[in-house]
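Worked example 4.2. Below are the chains of a multi-component assembly; read each line carefully before continuing.
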Amino acid sequence: MSRTEVPAAGRMQTLARNPAIIALFMGLALAGCANKKNMPNSAGELGLNNATPGSPQDFTVNVGDRIFFDTDSTSIRADAAATLDKQAQWLQKYPNYAITIEGHADERGTREYNLALGARRAASTKQYLSSRGIPASRMKTISYGKEKPVAVCDDISCWSQNRRAVTVLGGAGM
Amino acid sequence: MLRRTFLHSAAGLTGLAATVSPAMALVEININKGNVEPLPIAVTDFVAGGDLGQRITDVIAADLKRSGLFAPVNKQAFIEKISNPDQPPRFEDWKVINAQALVTGRVSQEGDGRLRAEFRLWDTFAGQQMTGQQFYTQPENWRRVAHIIADAIYERITGEKGYFDTRVVYVAESGPKNARKRQLAIMDQDGANARALTNSNEIVLTPRFSPSRQEITYMSFEGQQPRVYLLQLETGQREVVGNFPGMTFAPRFSPDGQRVIMSLQQDGNANIYTMDLRSRTTTRLTSTAAIDTGPSYSPDGARIVFESDRGGRQQLYVMGADGSGQNRISFGDGSYSTPVWSPRGDLIAFTKQSGGKFSIGVMKPDGSGERILTTGFHNEGPTWAPNGRVLMFFRQPAGAGGPQLFSIDLTGYNEQQIPTAGYASDPAWSPLLE
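Applying the procedure described above to all two chains together yields the following structure tokens:
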């Protein structure tokens, strides 16, 4: 079999990581979000809310970096839309961040389908944020399928935590 | 590592009666019967200077036993001790312990350092030799010689090609479920000679053999860019397959080894593409606003089975190799995925999700004759032995544990765990080695 060989080493170099996205530390003394007590997916209620506004910690703690999906669904639920609305507001306030949306599936599916399902969840999340004014050029997506669960157990409540899209400041993706 | 070995075989042995004509053989197994009564077979230690004769016969006996078609007789019951394999055995001594077939042999070191192994298979009730072969190889290939002899015995008695001289690529997994480390690995089909092919913290998935057995295609998240790769087993050289504007996944080779077929993800949709490995040209085969993935060629290369959720849930579809005539073939309850066309062409194996369970099953290429082989919490990803008689798959337990590999007969009987050092998933069976 004759074929054009791409030297492995050289090829790997061209695969080098995306340009590193430098998360700018915004040292602005802005007040935190006003109604953080009611926010889902937020660690603010746990008393962790000493994050500097505009910091990645602020995003994770006070905005909420992830949304959840129903089984085998890629629709943005009402609670997820509320989180994404806050993400959009925050990202518009801090326009120097690019983001990567990671799509994930639970373990109750086959591997290859779940890779595509995670990608579809990331895409629907991206589309929603786009509809809220975040330019597509700031957003990348990546799917991990069922390969990166956050919760490990064997019941429905657990699987529901793994069916998620996580907005990562910076990050990788395509 | 996958160094080609040169095994010379001779059909008969000098100084002995030639093989008996098939019509006279009493010993045979009809493997289409389902749950067959295993054939009692005595595998005697090959005559040798050291313990190599015993090690070889242990591997032969283990292969035959694991097939579910043979029941090796306990060596303790043997009456005759074979000391000269050139002489016919005392058939009465073997009949009386109900060994219907008998294997004798010898291993020796040649002057040039090569290993010489010979065996004879006897029909004890007919009192005749069924076959006899000899092999020369390097001493480190002794396990392969054992597998080749087991294949010869299997083929002579069942009339089907064996599958013991084969390897399996898989994903070796370790660590907790939420921080799992994955490496590509390769082993003999019985779990021996396992070794890692990659060592990085990137996620690697779904390795599959080329028909030449010299390379595998797989998916890696290297550089956070999930894509399909090729890996040359001999050199370890890797390369990306194609330059696609999105995640590529679910790769397999075409039967002629000239193309890789895979899915390309763009936004919410996955479609099926091929890339010609020589010209590097890509061809799009499906074009739907759906997830089309899991493509697998028929052995003649004329058709492709794949899974799609274009009708709502994952179902199996068959199309021509050019993407023409896409027809759904699965219509049972639940969803179907990971289709794999049998090397014999007669069946398609799949994963089925139904009622909260994951099953491995088979159906004919027209969708008829569905049979479920095993059902449980999570069984996934069948791969065919090259003779199309046995399937391997992985089984994931509920909770924090990890997956293990299992094999099962096409009949649904004889489920066996494949021993691996740690967790293992995504097995892919090689063609027969040469």
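Take a moment to check your reading of the output against the notes. DSSP finds five helices and four strands in chain A. Chain A touches chain B through 44 residues (CB under 8 Å).
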